[in-house]
Amino acid sequence: MLASATQPFVKAELKAALWDMDGTLVDTEPYWIAAERTLVESHGGAWSHEQAMQLVGQSLMHSAGILQRAGVNLEKREIVDSLSAQVIDRLRIEVPWRPGAKELLDELYQSGVRCALVTMSEGPMAREVVANLPKPYFEFLITGDTVSQGKPHPEAYLAAVERLQDTDPALTVDHCVALEDSVPGVASAIASGVVTVGIPHQMPLPGDPRRATWDTLEGRKVADLEALVAARASANMPAAAFLGQAN
């Protein structure tokens, strides 16, 4: 944690970038929405854009419960497996990268900044996306099937920080920046204490001084992330009270 009356000062250094996947690294939300609509309609129901937006950034099991209430007569596990299979099929045809994502990933890799993927998608899908990257950008993956509580709970981000600390015990949340596009994802990252950047995509993000907000990753550099880490350190306040400075 940062310096306070009782805590030591933490050097301002960017050590890790924690990436959300759907909507941040890749634009898979249209794939998910199409799969949801197909599934609901196959059970005699109707699926609106407004309903689909309720699922953006949520855990798959939470989303499965909403789909059950929309008329899908399957167990939650069956719903998750059906949706995931449809989206993976689309990914095998085309991976829709978000603007600037691969470029920033590459610069982070070249700069020696560690990267981890923190997604509520399950392992098979996350591995499908990562396999299409030209280099081993991600040190490890935290996926929805490896945590007990999905976003907006902070478990996934806290698990990522703990994994990073295995080889760097001096690393803290103040050395890590999360990149997120959804309301649940941003809430998860902020609750974990990591420096948080919201890059809204399918849905707007409500104003929140605890995060930075970028319109896009296009043109963003490692220096921009370093500036956020430095801003938190210079603010000299606990992580949860950090005020996002970048726009």
UniProtKB/TrEMBL annotation:
It comes from the Bacteria. NCBIfam families: HAD-SF-IA-v3. It holds the Pfam family Hydrolase. Gene3D superfamilies: HAD superfamily/HAD-like, Putative phosphatase, domain 2. This is HAD family phosphatase.
